[in-house]
Amino acid sequence: MNRRDFITLLAAASAAYPLSALAGLRQQALDTSRLSEPWKTIAAVQEHLFPAEQDSPGAYDIHAIVYLKNMLERPGADQEEADFIKKGQGWLNGMAGQIYQKNFIDLKAEQKESVLRKIETSRAGYRWLNTQLSYILEALLSDPVYGGNTNGIGWKWLEHQPGFPAPTSSNLFYKLGYQKHRNSKA
What we know:
Layout: H1 3-16, H2 19-26, H3 39-49, H4 64-73, H5 79-100, H6 109-119, H7 123-141, H8 153-158, H9 173-185
């Protein structure tokens, strides 16, 4: 599927999604006040990149930060990628401080946009933002057992019927490979 078809599909799905159902799901949006750094700043970036709108969930609604943390802290996760993502918080706050004398999370929306646009001009910054977007889309489309897509909000928004059987907490994809590897060493 090319980008144009994907965006068309998203637009059609969002227009068809009942607003009252989304409002009910939005009440379960993530409380980021309990997050510590770098997660609080990364959650703010995610919401800026994928904001909630009247007829569509945003990064907070789909718990994109929970999904990201789970993927980066799982057994076998790429530690280099995890470090790279966490370092982005430092870059953002450094740039925000340089331009606005504030941390990224304390900026207004247009100031956040300005900082992100500045960050994206470097190769590392561009890669960091693309990585964020990839994880947000994964959180939107993944099974809720992985921490994102709470109550299937992304599936409901897209009118997607998930496959069966659904994974359980005991058969997550990363646990299956880990158990197999552990059993082969025994």
